[in-house]
Amino acid sequence: xxxxxxxxxxxxxxxxxxxxxxxxINNEAIQFSLKQKKDTIDFILVDTKxxxxxxxxxxxxxxxxxxxxxxxxxxDMWMIxxxxxxxxxxxxxxxxxxxxxxxxxxxxxxxxxxxxKSYCYIPNEKEPDEFDKEYVKAxxxxxxxxxxxxxxxxxxxxxxxxxxxxxxxxxxxxxKVATLIAxxxxxxxxxxxxxxxxxxxxxxxxxxxxxxxxxxxxxxEKADKNMEETYQMxxxxxxxNTLKKNPDLLAWKSFSRPLxxxxxxxxxxxxxxxxxxxxASDLCDLVPLFYIQxxxxxxxxxxxxxLEHNFFEVNEDGTTNYEKEHWKEVMNEFIKWSKx
Length: 340
Fold this sequence. Notes:
This protein is of the alpha/beta class. It has twelve helices and 14 strands. It has two domains: about 200 residues, Alpha/Beta hydrolase fold, catalytic domain (Rossmann fold); about 55 residues, no CATH class.
């Protein structure tokens, strides 16, 4: 009995301290850290206070070990936030608590000198193409789902969270993470998929080779050779001995899981948005056919014409026009749909 009382008191004190000592970053977000046996899961609430009760909007970011915040040597700190700075954040915050989980084994805040040209975290600035070895080992689908579940379990117990609704959405690789969360977590009420590949990941390499040959950018002999090499790489990812020598293959193995079968098992409202000039999402055009075959009516899809993977417009020569972005429009449409 005394042990139970001590535990209750301890939990009460933790809650008090937690409420009074919020770790606010750059006057933009509150950082939380959940310590596990072999990992610490960091995530942010994109807000500076928790005085309003709202449902959670968990956004699952894409691939690569990007930090949530960048600290330049001379300029002010700024937020990447897994890509959420492309959204109309205030519009999201009207209805939801926006949550983003840090990439595994990646600091929340990184000095700019420890970023490569793609804003990926690199432990050694002299080796811009070498990611943290621990990140590489942790970069697989099931781990992202596990980390997200720990975060959602924590949030579910907070007084400022409205548990009547739970939005989970993801872009690119994040769409795979969001899918697995929605498949296994019955608390999720709405699923958002952006720039998703319904057949996994590695199939894109095969389709890319075919397109290059069809467009006469390479010969069919070259495409055939490249396809066979891709098949071999995928075989290697299923070989335990090869995986030990090359842990980079683990991501190819786990993220190449076809999503379509999972989507067809999910019963909650699902929203699929993609650009017509995005090779990763080419096969999304086929997805409604499978829903029709299964007599499922929980899919809403939005095809954005002449936009690429990150919803930028594409020029006539096929290059991306970074002056014309549409993420705010895309995400606001989703938010509007989620409130119906």
